Amino acid sequence: MRHLNKGRKFGRTKGDRNLFFKSLIDNLIINKKIETTEARAKEIKIKTEKLTTLAKKQNLASYKLLISRIGEEAAKELYYNIAPQLKNRKGGYLRIIKSPRRRKRDGAPLAVVEFVFDN
Q1: Prediction pTM value
Q2: Tell me: the pLDDT tens digits for 21-52?
Q3: Superfamily classification of domain 14-115
């Protein structure tokens, strides 16, 4: 039974999966937008929203946790540039927009994940 087992495996081992998500999240934070498959988009949205909430705390402990989880460059971008812009939002920092295109090689549905800024 799969009770309480959350998340997708994407046909990877645990270490590969963690590095895979780290690179996707790094690219999302640095570029503020990323196009990927719908399944990947749903997974990185969950993980990135938790990291964004952590960055909004604006203390040294949360900054060091961010560095340990996503790397220094992405942590700086999230902590100093993105989190202050999202300080008034209570959640829902990201949106997933389904793309009409499909990936050429296997026809996988694509989606765009982007930050929601209140400009």
Answers
A1: 0.91
A2: 999 999 999 999 999 999 999 999 999 999 99
A3: Ribosomal protein L17 (3.90.1030.10)
